């Protein structure tokens, strides 16, 4: 009986791992960068645009269908990726950062700096409308949550310990950022 229980448990966890791996593969295949036109397309997300500024008001059920699970959890449920694990925390390439949920322009790489906190950090946003703020009182502290100005997706938090000229630190989750490098 114990061998059967072990076999069923292993089979169950193996199928979960295969499902997760398949989901990640599908999500990666449905995102592409068009190098000639310098924009991103996401075939599973018809709301994604690097140029449309129209406010998106969609139910959570729609976001769950069009976003990869990792992006969905951070963007729609304010989860946080582990520090020093995101793809942009330690990069210096020149270009522009966009919301991974909707494509809204958020930051220029010229505003990125090394804060050693484990998440990509910026001292100013691209424009006044790109990011909005709300008070976040989770985990027994009061912080300022940074939210995408187009889709209201959680991006990270804003702190007053950044460099001049703004003295701000936009501490962002890499998983909710897309990046397009400047043309060389």
Write the SSE topology.
Blueprint: H1 2-29, E1 31-34, E2 39-42, H2 60-66, H3 69-77, E3 95-99, E4 105-108, E5 112-113, E6 121-122, E7 131-136, E8 143-148, E9 154-159, E10 169-172, E11 177-181
Antiparallel strand pairs: 1-2, 3-4, 3-11, 5-6, 6-10, 7-8, 8-9, 9-10
Summarize the structure.
This protein is α+β, with helices and mostly antiparallel strands and 184 residues long. Helix content is 24%, strand content 26%. The chain has one domain: Metal Binding Protein, Guanine Nucleotide Exchange Factor, Chain A, CATH 2.170.150.
Describe the protein's architecture and organization.
Helices cover 24% and strands 26% of the residues. With 184 residues, it is an alpha+beta fold. It has a single domain, classed as Peptide methionine sulfoxide reductase (Metal Binding Protein, Guanine Nucleotide Exchange Factor, Chain A, Beta Complex), CATH 2.170.150.20. Strand 5 and strand 6 form a beta hairpin. The longest helix is centred in the N-terminal third of the chain and has 28 residues, at 2-29. The N and C termini lie far apart (64 Å).
